[in-house]
Write a structure and sequence with these properties.
Oligomer: single chain
CATH class: Mainly Alpha
CATH topology: A middle domain of Talin 1
Number of helices: 10
Strand content: under 5%
Radius of gyration: 20 Å
Structural class: mainly alpha
Order of helices and strands: HHHHHHHHHH
CATH architecture: Up-down Bundle
Shape: globular
Number of strands: 0
Largest sheet: none
Number of domains: 1
Helix content: 55-70%
Length: 323
Protein backbone atom coordinates (compact mmCIF):
# COMPACT_ATOMS: atom_id res chain seq x y z
CA UNK A 1 0.00 0.00 0.00
CA UNK A 2 1.28 3.45 -0.89
CA UNK A 3 1.92 5.43 2.33
CA UNK A 4 0.08 8.71 2.87
CA UNK A 5 1.70 11.71 1.22
CA UNK A 6 1.82 15.38 2.22
CA UNK A 7 -1.10 17.40 0.80
CA UNK A 8 -0.78 18.28 -2.88
CA UNK A 9 2.57 16.51 -3.23
CA UNK A 10 1.91 12.85 -4.07
CA UNK A 11 4.75 10.70 -5.28
CA UNK A 12 3.03 7.40 -6.03
CA UNK A 13 6.02 6.23 -8.00
CA UNK A 14 9.71 7.18 -7.66
CA UNK A 15 11.63 8.80 -10.47
CA UNK A 16 12.86 5.55 -12.08
CA UNK A 17 9.26 4.66 -12.99
CA UNK A 18 9.49 6.99 -15.99
CA UNK A 19 12.64 5.35 -17.25
CA UNK A 20 10.85 2.03 -16.78
CA UNK A 21 8.33 3.01 -19.43
CA UNK A 22 11.09 4.08 -21.78
CA UNK A 23 13.11 0.91 -21.08
CA UNK A 24 10.02 -1.21 -21.77
CA UNK A 25 9.33 0.65 -24.98
CA UNK A 26 12.98 0.39 -26.07
CA UNK A 27 13.03 -3.37 -25.45
CA UNK A 28 9.80 -3.93 -27.33
CA UNK A 29 10.98 -1.70 -30.17
CA UNK A 30 14.13 -3.81 -30.51
CA UNK A 31 12.03 -6.97 -30.65
CA UNK A 32 9.70 -5.39 -33.20
CA UNK A 33 12.62 -4.37 -35.40
CA UNK A 34 14.14 -7.85 -35.28
CA UNK A 35 10.81 -9.52 -35.98
CA UNK A 36 10.11 -7.15 -38.84
CA UNK A 37 13.45 -8.02 -40.38
CA UNK A 38 12.80 -11.75 -39.97
CA UNK A 39 9.26 -11.86 -41.32
CA UNK A 40 9.54 -9.39 -44.18
CA UNK A 41 12.49 -10.23 -46.45
CA UNK A 42 11.93 -7.09 -48.47
CA UNK A 43 11.96 -4.84 -45.44
CA UNK A 44 15.08 -3.05 -44.34
CA UNK A 45 15.66 -0.94 -41.27
CA UNK A 46 17.17 2.46 -41.84
CA UNK A 47 17.65 5.45 -39.56
CA UNK A 48 15.57 8.51 -40.37
CA UNK A 49 17.51 11.12 -38.43
CA UNK A 50 19.17 12.26 -41.65
CA UNK A 51 16.13 11.91 -43.87
CA UNK A 52 15.70 15.34 -45.48
CA UNK A 53 13.33 15.47 -48.50
CA UNK A 54 14.59 17.84 -51.18
CA UNK A 55 11.31 18.43 -52.97
CA UNK A 56 7.59 18.60 -52.29
CA UNK A 57 5.67 19.86 -49.24
CA UNK A 58 8.15 18.31 -46.80
CA UNK A 59 11.29 19.70 -48.43
CA UNK A 60 13.90 20.34 -45.78
CA UNK A 61 11.89 18.67 -43.03
CA UNK A 62 13.71 16.33 -40.67
CA UNK A 63 12.60 13.40 -38.56
CA UNK A 64 14.58 12.81 -35.38
CA UNK A 65 12.36 10.08 -33.99
CA UNK A 66 11.38 6.50 -34.61
CA UNK A 67 12.62 4.09 -37.24
CA UNK A 68 12.27 4.07 -40.99
CA UNK A 69 11.16 0.51 -41.67
CA UNK A 70 9.44 0.05 -44.97
CA UNK A 71 6.88 -2.61 -45.70
CA UNK A 72 3.39 -3.38 -44.50
CA UNK A 73 0.13 -3.45 -46.42
CA UNK A 74 -1.21 -0.51 -48.35
CA UNK A 75 -3.83 0.29 -45.65
CA UNK A 76 -1.18 0.44 -42.94
CA UNK A 77 1.18 2.44 -45.14
CA UNK A 78 -1.52 5.01 -45.86
CA UNK A 79 -2.53 5.13 -42.20
CA UNK A 80 1.12 5.65 -41.18
CA UNK A 81 1.55 8.49 -43.67
CA UNK A 82 -1.70 10.07 -42.48
CA UNK A 83 -0.54 9.86 -38.86
CA UNK A 84 2.78 11.56 -39.61
CA UNK A 85 1.11 14.43 -41.44
CA UNK A 86 -1.72 14.76 -38.93
CA UNK A 87 0.77 15.08 -36.09
CA UNK A 88 2.74 17.73 -37.98
CA UNK A 89 -0.50 19.67 -38.47
CA UNK A 90 -1.31 19.25 -34.79
CA UNK A 91 2.08 20.61 -33.72
CA UNK A 92 1.74 23.54 -36.11
CA UNK A 93 -1.63 24.38 -34.54
CA UNK A 94 -0.20 24.18 -31.02
CA UNK A 95 2.80 26.39 -31.74
CA UNK A 96 0.65 28.89 -33.62
CA UNK A 97 -1.71 29.08 -30.64
CA UNK A 98 1.28 29.61 -28.37
CA UNK A 99 2.62 32.48 -30.49
CA UNK A 100 -0.85 34.04 -30.59
CA UNK A 101 -1.29 33.76 -26.80
CA UNK A 102 2.10 35.38 -26.21
CA UNK A 103 1.15 38.15 -28.63
CA UNK A 104 -2.09 38.76 -26.72
CA UNK A 105 -0.11 38.74 -23.48
CA UNK A 106 2.21 41.42 -24.79
CA UNK A 107 -0.71 43.57 -25.92
CA UNK A 108 -2.51 43.32 -22.59
CA UNK A 109 0.64 44.09 -20.64
CA UNK A 110 1.20 47.16 -22.80
CA UNK A 111 -2.39 48.21 -22.09
CA UNK A 112 -1.92 47.69 -18.35
CA UNK A 113 -4.68 45.06 -18.15
CA UNK A 114 -3.30 42.69 -15.51
CA UNK A 115 -6.40 40.48 -15.35
CA UNK A 116 -6.36 39.81 -19.09
CA UNK A 117 -2.59 39.34 -19.02
CA UNK A 118 -2.93 36.66 -16.35
CA UNK A 119 -5.45 34.79 -18.48
CA UNK A 120 -3.13 35.10 -21.48
CA UNK A 121 -0.18 33.76 -19.50
CA UNK A 122 -2.15 30.71 -18.38
CA UNK A 123 -3.33 30.13 -21.95
CA UNK A 124 0.23 30.40 -23.24
CA UNK A 125 1.40 27.95 -20.57
CA UNK A 126 -1.26 25.44 -21.62
CA UNK A 127 -0.28 25.84 -25.27
CA UNK A 128 3.38 25.30 -24.38
CA UNK A 129 2.50 22.17 -22.40
CA UNK A 130 1.05 20.65 -25.56
CA UNK A 131 4.48 20.55 -27.24
CA UNK A 132 6.91 20.78 -24.30
CA UNK A 133 8.24 17.21 -24.67
CA UNK A 134 9.26 18.00 -28.24
CA UNK A 135 11.43 20.81 -26.88
CA UNK A 136 13.70 18.41 -25.01
CA UNK A 137 15.92 18.21 -28.09
CA UNK A 138 16.72 21.90 -27.72
CA UNK A 139 17.40 22.58 -24.06
CA UNK A 140 18.53 26.16 -24.69
CA UNK A 141 15.32 27.16 -26.42
CA UNK A 142 13.23 25.28 -23.85
CA UNK A 143 14.91 27.18 -21.01
CA UNK A 144 14.04 30.52 -22.61
CA UNK A 145 10.37 29.53 -22.72
CA UNK A 146 9.68 27.66 -19.49
CA UNK A 147 12.51 28.16 -17.01
CA UNK A 148 11.91 27.92 -13.25
CA UNK A 149 13.62 29.93 -10.54
CA UNK A 150 14.98 26.63 -9.24
CA UNK A 151 16.71 26.01 -12.58
CA UNK A 152 19.21 28.83 -12.02
CA UNK A 153 21.57 29.88 -9.22
CA UNK A 154 20.08 32.09 -6.47
CA UNK A 155 21.67 35.28 -7.80
CA UNK A 156 20.86 34.60 -11.45
CA UNK A 157 17.73 35.66 -13.31
CA UNK A 158 15.43 33.32 -15.16
CA UNK A 159 13.08 33.92 -18.05
CA UNK A 160 10.16 32.56 -20.01
CA UNK A 161 6.63 31.82 -18.93
CA UNK A 162 7.45 31.38 -15.25
CA UNK A 163 9.26 34.70 -15.08
CA UNK A 164 6.15 36.35 -16.53
CA UNK A 165 4.02 34.36 -14.08
CA UNK A 166 6.13 35.73 -11.21
CA UNK A 167 5.82 39.26 -12.55
CA UNK A 168 2.03 39.02 -12.82
CA UNK A 169 1.29 37.32 -9.51
CA UNK A 170 4.16 38.75 -7.43
CA UNK A 171 6.56 41.32 -8.87
CA UNK A 172 9.31 41.65 -11.44
CA UNK A 173 10.37 43.26 -14.75
CA UNK A 174 7.13 42.35 -16.55
CA UNK A 175 7.62 44.33 -19.76
CA UNK A 176 11.16 43.06 -20.29
CA UNK A 177 10.25 39.43 -19.55
CA UNK A 178 7.24 39.50 -21.88
CA UNK A 179 9.32 41.07 -24.63
CA UNK A 180 11.95 38.33 -24.31
CA UNK A 181 9.28 35.64 -24.38
CA UNK A 182 7.65 37.19 -27.42
CA UNK A 183 10.98 37.03 -29.24
CA UNK A 184 11.52 33.34 -28.47
CA UNK A 185 8.04 31.99 -29.22
CA UNK A 186 8.45 32.08 -33.03
CA UNK A 187 11.78 30.25 -32.68
CA UNK A 188 10.03 27.25 -31.17
CA UNK A 189 7.36 27.46 -33.86
CA UNK A 190 9.95 27.41 -36.64
CA UNK A 191 12.09 24.62 -35.19
CA UNK A 192 9.15 22.32 -34.55
CA UNK A 193 7.62 22.99 -37.96
CA UNK A 194 10.44 20.95 -39.50
CA UNK A 195 9.78 17.78 -37.52
CA UNK A 196 8.09 14.76 -39.10
CA UNK A 197 8.12 11.95 -36.52
CA UNK A 198 6.80 8.55 -37.52
CA UNK A 199 3.82 6.81 -35.88
CA UNK A 200 5.84 4.94 -33.25
CA UNK A 201 7.55 8.19 -32.26
CA UNK A 202 4.22 10.02 -32.03
CA UNK A 203 2.95 7.36 -29.64
CA UNK A 204 6.15 7.72 -27.59
CA UNK A 205 5.54 11.48 -27.46
CA UNK A 206 2.16 10.71 -25.89
CA UNK A 207 3.84 8.38 -23.38
CA UNK A 208 6.34 11.11 -22.49
CA UNK A 209 3.53 13.62 -22.04
CA UNK A 210 1.75 11.29 -19.61
CA UNK A 211 5.00 10.56 -17.80
CA UNK A 212 5.74 14.26 -17.37
CA UNK A 213 2.40 14.77 -15.68
CA UNK A 214 3.10 11.93 -13.24
CA UNK A 215 6.72 12.83 -12.55
CA UNK A 216 6.49 16.61 -12.51
CA UNK A 217 3.12 18.33 -12.87
CA UNK A 218 1.19 16.36 -10.25
CA UNK A 219 3.75 16.00 -7.43
CA UNK A 220 5.65 19.24 -8.03
CA UNK A 221 3.36 22.07 -9.08
CA UNK A 222 5.14 24.21 -11.68
CA UNK A 223 3.02 27.32 -11.23
CA UNK A 224 4.79 28.53 -8.10
CA UNK A 225 3.32 32.05 -8.10
CA UNK A 226 -0.23 31.65 -9.44
CA UNK A 227 -0.61 28.24 -7.73
CA UNK A 228 -2.77 27.07 -10.62
CA UNK A 229 -0.80 23.97 -11.52
CA UNK A 230 -3.80 22.09 -12.85
CA UNK A 231 -3.34 24.12 -16.02
CA UNK A 232 -0.26 21.96 -16.72
CA UNK A 233 -1.96 18.71 -15.75
CA UNK A 234 -5.03 19.23 -17.91
CA UNK A 235 -3.17 20.62 -20.91
CA UNK A 236 -0.64 17.78 -20.87
CA UNK A 237 -3.32 15.10 -20.63
CA UNK A 238 -5.25 16.62 -23.50
CA UNK A 239 -2.07 16.85 -25.57
CA UNK A 240 -1.28 13.19 -24.91
CA UNK A 241 -4.77 12.18 -25.98
CA UNK A 242 -4.46 14.24 -29.17
CA UNK A 243 -1.08 12.66 -29.93
CA UNK A 244 -2.57 9.20 -29.48
CA UNK A 245 -5.57 10.07 -31.64
CA UNK A 246 -3.43 10.58 -34.75
CA UNK A 247 -1.99 7.04 -34.54
CA UNK A 248 -5.28 5.47 -33.44
CA UNK A 249 -6.39 4.47 -36.98
CA UNK A 250 -3.07 2.76 -37.70
CA UNK A 251 -2.98 1.17 -34.25
CA UNK A 252 -6.44 -0.31 -34.87
CA UNK A 253 -5.09 -2.07 -37.94
CA UNK A 254 -2.01 -3.33 -36.12
CA UNK A 255 -3.32 -4.24 -32.63
CA UNK A 256 -7.07 -3.63 -32.31
CA UNK A 257 -7.51 -5.12 -28.85
CA UNK A 258 -4.59 -3.25 -27.28
CA UNK A 259 -5.69 -0.05 -29.01
CA UNK A 260 -9.19 -0.42 -27.59
CA UNK A 261 -7.65 -0.79 -24.13
CA UNK A 262 -5.72 2.47 -24.54
CA UNK A 263 -8.86 4.20 -25.79
CA UNK A 264 -10.70 3.08 -22.67
CA UNK A 265 -7.90 4.27 -20.43
CA UNK A 266 -7.88 7.68 -22.07
CA UNK A 267 -11.66 7.90 -21.70
CA UNK A 268 -11.31 7.24 -17.97
CA UNK A 269 -8.48 9.76 -17.74
CA UNK A 270 -10.53 12.38 -19.60
CA UNK A 271 -13.36 11.94 -17.11
CA UNK A 272 -11.05 12.26 -14.09
CA UNK A 273 -9.42 15.38 -15.46
CA UNK A 274 -12.76 16.97 -16.37
CA UNK A 275 -13.99 16.37 -12.82
CA UNK A 276 -11.26 18.66 -11.51
CA UNK A 277 -13.09 21.72 -12.79
CA UNK A 278 -11.79 24.73 -14.77
CA UNK A 279 -8.00 24.45 -14.36
CA UNK A 280 -7.38 28.21 -14.45
CA UNK A 281 -9.57 28.74 -11.40
CA UNK A 282 -8.79 25.73 -9.18
CA UNK A 283 -6.00 26.51 -6.67
CA UNK A 284 -3.47 23.77 -6.05
CA UNK A 285 -4.29 23.63 -2.33
CA UNK A 286 -7.90 22.64 -3.03
CA UNK A 287 -6.98 19.42 -4.87
CA UNK A 288 -6.98 16.56 -2.37
CA UNK A 289 -4.04 14.18 -2.10
CA UNK A 290 -6.32 11.23 -2.84
CA UNK A 291 -7.43 12.91 -6.06
CA UNK A 292 -3.85 13.48 -7.13
CA UNK A 293 -2.92 9.88 -6.36
CA UNK A 294 -5.87 8.55 -8.36
CA UNK A 295 -4.87 10.76 -11.28
CA UNK A 296 -1.24 9.64 -11.06
CA UNK A 297 -2.25 5.99 -11.14
CA UNK A 298 -4.49 6.50 -14.18
CA UNK A 299 -1.84 8.52 -16.01
CA UNK A 300 0.73 5.83 -15.24
CA UNK A 301 -1.48 2.92 -16.29
CA UNK A 302 -2.32 4.63 -19.57
CA UNK A 303 1.35 5.39 -20.25
CA UNK A 304 2.35 1.76 -19.58
CA UNK A 305 -0.19 0.33 -22.01
CA UNK A 306 0.55 2.97 -24.62
CA UNK A 307 4.29 2.19 -24.42
CA UNK A 308 3.50 -1.41 -25.40
CA UNK A 309 1.36 -0.21 -28.28
CA UNK A 310 4.04 2.24 -29.44
CA UNK A 311 6.52 -0.60 -29.86
CA UNK A 312 4.13 -2.43 -32.18
CA UNK A 313 4.06 0.60 -34.46
CA UNK A 314 7.82 0.50 -35.07
CA UNK A 315 7.59 -1.25 -38.48
CA UNK A 316 5.37 1.55 -39.75
CA UNK A 317 7.90 4.36 -39.54
CA UNK A 318 8.49 7.24 -41.90
CA UNK A 319 9.37 5.10 -44.91
CA UNK A 320 7.05 5.78 -47.80
CA UNK A 321 6.03 9.22 -46.57
CA UNK A 322 5.51 11.50 -49.55
CA UNK A 323 8.40 13.83 -50.28
Amino acid sequence: MTPPLPPNHPTPEPGPRRSGHRALAATLVTVAVVMAGCTSPGTSARPVSTSVPTAGPDAGATSRYGTGLSGGSRPTTLAAQAATHAFATQVDASTSAFVAAVGALQSDVAAGDTGAARSDELAAQADYDSFRVLETGNAINASTLDELASDVNPLESFGGLHAVERDLWASGPLVADVSALEGQAPVAQYLLSRERPGPEAVAVVAVDQLDWAVDVALPHGQEQYSHLGLVDVVATEQAAHRSFSVVDPLAHLVAPALTATVEGQFAALDAQVAALGPPASVPDATVATATRLALSHQFDATASTLARLAALLTPYGTAGAPS
